[in-house]
Amino acid sequence: MTTVLATPAPHTAPAQGPPRWVRPSVLALLAVTAVLYLWNLSASGFGNGYYAAAVQSGTQDWKAWLFGSLDSGNVLTVDKPPASLWVTTAVARVFGFSSWTVLAPQALMGVAAVGLLYLTVRRVSGPAAGLLAGAAFAFTPVAALMFRYNNPDALLTLLLVAGAYCVVRAVEKASPRWLLLAGVAIGFGFLTKMLQAFLVLPAFALAYLLAAPTSTGRRLLHLLGAAAAVVLSAGWFVALVELWPSGSRPYIGGSEGDSLLELALGYNGLGRIFGAEGNMGGGGGDGGGMTGFGGDTGLLRMFGDSFGTEISWLLPAALIGLVAGWWFTRRAPGTDRTRMSLVLWGGWLLVTGLVFSYMSGTMHPYYAVALAPAVAASVAISGHALWQGRHNASARAVLASMVGVTAVWTFILLDRTPDFVPVLRWAILVLGLLGTTALLAGATEFRRPASALAVAVVLTLGLGTVAYTGATAARAHTGSIPASGPVTSGMRGGPDGEASTNTELAALLERTTTRWAAATPSAQSAASLSLASGKAVIGIGGWSGGDPAPTLAEFQTSVADGEIGYYVEDGGMLRGPGGGSSEIAEWVAANFEATTVGGQTVYDLTG
């Protein structure tokens, strides 16, 4: 049984190079991915206005670029580290601030991630498996969603795939240099989305510890060096923030004590996993909680209404393939590359998937993009190896189960949006059942039936997710909780859109000459006004409304110095008790005269 999943020859073995079909196939994959992620990109406007406003601020002020400030006056930062903003702002500074320069960098990150995943899988399982992995990743709905959007998840996913590539290269010759590069990738992943980047570390470490062709002592020493690389590549910015005088930098949004380290361990760290003040979970799914916040926690969360159509199309097949692969290679040599690869991608999938499934804090469906590379690679590596061993009845049986389960599960997922191409789910179900039957009957023993069967298997595994991904790319997405799929699926319980812009108010703010055109007790409203007017707007209290920035005393000083033009009410949204929003609102109402501009209450603070 250990020969069922035989390790293919190293990709560098043939002197004549790869087959002729490989290069055009790879170029076609990358070209299709680029079209999918870039086509009609500006239909989504600025996407997530919160991060787009931070990019605009970074183009207006260098300190805002460094710290990821929401406003160019540097009152406070967004509630994430700024690595993804560094990249997008650099593009916007060179080519000008626009919808395209805000969204296109993420699309290009997606193309790069698909290419890197191909290279990573190819090194172990050959070009065919690499192409399957790249295509499965590119056509995962949540991947198309996030790589056409301006959330930090796009850069995080690219860095995680880059880390996996470096680990595979490191394992080949027990290379500490490649392992250090993997650590650097994860360190910058921390500067993108903090502790989420660390979820892949157990899988990376275990793969190297089991398979690197050197002594156990050297493996441990190399891993220790990689851990140091993680700390240094993430820690330099944490140290910079902590050592920078707080009075001359923006407040760290989302933290209770103006600390980036505290933000990583609290609101954006353990608070996300265990739940805490400022972190809300799905808390009930259909029983009352919004699926836009993850729905019910539990082992089946990734298959539920919130995550199912985002990521789970190939998840059952991936789990079957991983279990079979681990079993068939259980007696393989320690340095067996197929087993190492299954440990790496399977560990990534299981650890991240279980954490996502049981997180009781804030959890949005689009987080699942971090699972997409692992799902795609697991299916491609195990599926390709099982196909190579199809003359073995056990391999055929496992492959048949992967195809059959995928067909049935795709039918179920498509049935959640019954108005979306109704015939598709029936066609996939029939095709899948025919393919399953043919595999069990041994049709792979004959050349022509085997070729037709291979096509049927690929169509069964991919047709549903490809259709849903196409529908995702055809839609415009805005707001803080975007979702994939056709228009009929809506947000399945969460908001997908920005508040409409008050053009009259935007025109008023555009004429201001003060340091800040306005202040408003909502970061989302501040971002919207800033994008519409091109001017700095203070989002009092930050994203959750609970950040103590600015304090009432700081606000009063700025008003006295003539630095804030207007105060704009937002209907009482997100006024956290700790942020001073209510105190500032009461002070403004007691000392300045209200007027209405475009239906919104506005106070002129310069009178």
From TrEMBL:
Lineage: Bacteria, Bacillati, Actinomycetota, Actinomycetes, Pseudonocardiales
Record-linked Pfam families: PMT_2, YkcB_C
Tagged with keyword Cell membrane: yes
Keywords, sorted A to Z: Cell membrane, Glycosyltransferase, Membrane, Transferase, Transmembrane, Transmembrane helix
Protein name: Glycosyl transferase
GO BP annotations, alphabetical order: lipopolysaccharide biosynthetic process; response to iron(III) ion
Domain Putative mannosyltransferase YkcA/B-like C-terminal: 510-591
Major place of residence: membrane
Positions of the Glycosyltransferase RgtA/B/C/D-like domain: 79-233
Annotated localization: Cell membrane
